[in-house]
Amino acid sequence: VQLVESGGKSVQAGGSLRLACEFSGLTASRSCMGWFRQAPGKEREEVAEDLSSGGIKYAESVEGRFTMSQDNAKNTLYLQMNSLKPDDTAMYYCAHALRIFGSCLRFTTWGQGTQVTVSS
Known about the structure:
The chain is an all-beta fold. The protein has strands at residues 2-6, 10-12, 17-24, 31-38, 45-50, 56-58, 66-71, 76-81, 90-100, 103-104, 109-110, 114-119. The strands form two sheets. Strands 2, 4, 5, 6, 9, 10, 11 and 12 form an eight-stranded mixed beta sheet that branches. The radius of gyration is 14 Å and the shape is globular. The model has no long low-confidence stretch (mean pLDDT 97).
């Protein structure tokens, strides 16, 4: 499995960005995908992830502002980020987990990350 993120840049607070993660070497129906982020001096945190039930779980801090979507025809996972805040500044990573008998296992494959910087 390979994951390659893109789309990170510097933006003003209140702006929008769409991150993309091109994936290869995986079977979409047997995969769960997610976005995570890590700010300097902080632990990596979940932003959005597929649930075994088929829905998507969002971190409380991004609920209503971020949307994760996937286009299997383009082998790409997206993260649409609106109403960006300085606290959203971080390196953003997409991640892959196997889906076995419908259940998402833990995330084991990560991309190299793309930097998002939000200035006030």
